[in-house]
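Morning - zinc ion inputs below, output right after.
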Amino acid sequence: MPGTRLPLYRDDAVVLRVQKLGESDRIITLLSRRHGRVRAAAKGIRRTQSRFGARLEPFGHVDVQIAGDPRDAHRPLHTIRQVDSIELYGDRLARDYPRYTAASAVVETAERLTPVEYEPSLRLFQLTLGALRALAAAEHAGSLVLDAYLLRVMANAGWAPALAECAVCGTPGRHAAFSIAAGGSVCADCRPPGSTHPAPSTVELMLALLAGDWRIADASDPSHRRECSGLVAAHLQWHLERGLRSLPLVDRTSGGSPIPAT
Ligand SMILES: [Zn+2]
């Protein structure tokens, strides 16, 4: 509102998404360290003399100063006032298509895992930044970095697939069957119809990625990597769809109490 002095806040953040807003402005979706996911307008970004330059591109790690009040739930769109680059990964990632697609999956997942703005998750921020940095550094195969990221953010959200115990009864050990709907590995007694039987080395790879054991992960066989990616993607999809379906039932304006379905 003109004439109103908006408070300023500062944070470091990863640029998740950039959308057009009119001719020269952009809406930037950020995952910030201390404020969670933030959407803010960047004005005049297409002008040649823009003070933002190339700093507000996807995958960049930036230090931002934003005008707006994070505590105001009905706030107008916040405005980015200043940006300093910490490390811009976009250029390096754009030169390698598989890594670029992996990075795109990382930022898309980060956005879907933060349906509500201004709910900070330091762990999600660190994992997202770490995955983009690892993809840009090209030390490991892009698909492995992506799957490690997805397994860890699922663990952070509390729904990583069970790998070293039965997802249903909790009996410890490696079980041959795997069921997305049941939540991961399942023992012979709990195995639902339609369970798959991944190679033991695939489950080994998933455990290594979850634990950050790159010695095992880097030495893994391409067929096990493919099977791992399929299981991780299916597990993520299953939970995201169920999670998103449940969202409209939650009232987010009054402290999260459920609204009766009408
Ligand atoms: Zn069981």
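Note: Residues 166, 168-169, 171, 186-187, 189-190 surround zinc ion (CB under 6 Å).

O.
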